[in-house]
Design a protein that fits this description.
This protein is of the alpha/beta class and 190 residues long. The protein is built from six helices and six strands; from the N terminus they run βαβααβαβαββα. α1 packs parallel to α6.
């Protein structure tokens, strides 16, 4: 029997939207094909969708929190057009080259550390053992594995360059990853 709520944690850039490097302008948002459909399927099963994203561009002064919020508003607006939504967003603006309080050599929230995942699980009453972390970089897989999740690598973004040795599942894109997770997992409540 599943205890708590299962969830899908997602990296943002390269997993949900094109990774153009330091995305601070909502006009530059391009949602990867199939993402909205995949998220809508999770939403229809009452599976929480939580974004876990490093945003060192904020910490290094490349863009502001208001720019980040505008980008997220654009992403959520596009997803809503397809009947999909994100339940929560966790952000790590820290970086060794960050400015002021964002300067940190190895902040516990910054992936590959699991801090954002663990905090999201606690704050949303999620049983992390029955959750997945999906991303296009090794740091996404390492963060998920450290937190105690199953992990999936998508071959979008930087995913084509990443060895899938840490992954429980490797998929061409988020839609295919969700197919694999829902097809192979009886662990989701909803």
């Amino acid at each position: 029997m599943v205890i708590g709520i299962s969830a899908v944690f997602l990296d943002r850039d390269g997993t949900i939207n094109d990774d153009i490097g330091y995305l601070g302008n909502p006009d530059d948002v391009v949602i990867i094909p199939g993402v909205a459909k995949a998220l809508a399927r999770l939403n229809s099963k009452n599976i929480p969708v939580i974004v876990i994203t490093n945003q060192s561009g904020i910490g290094r002064g490349f863009y502001k929190w208001s720019d980040f919020r505008a980008v997220m508003c654009r992403i959520t607006s596009v997803l809503a057009d397809y009947g999909a939504h994100i339940d929560a967003i966790y952000v790590a603006p820290h970086h060794p080259d960050g400015l002021g309080s964002y300067s940190h050599p190895n902040h516990p929230d910054r992936k590959p550390n699991p801090g954002m995942l663990l905090r999201a699980a606690k704050e949303n009453d999620i049983d992390i053992r029955y959750s997945w972390m999906i991303g296009d970089k090794r740091i996404d897989l390492e963060a998920g594995r450290s937190a105690g999740c199953k992990v999936a690598l998508v071959r979008t973004g930087y995913g084509r360059l990443v060895d899938g040795d840490l992954a429980d599942l490797v998929a061409e894109n988020l839609d295919a990853a969700i197919d694999g997770i829902l097809g192979s997992s009886k662990s989701f409540s909803g």
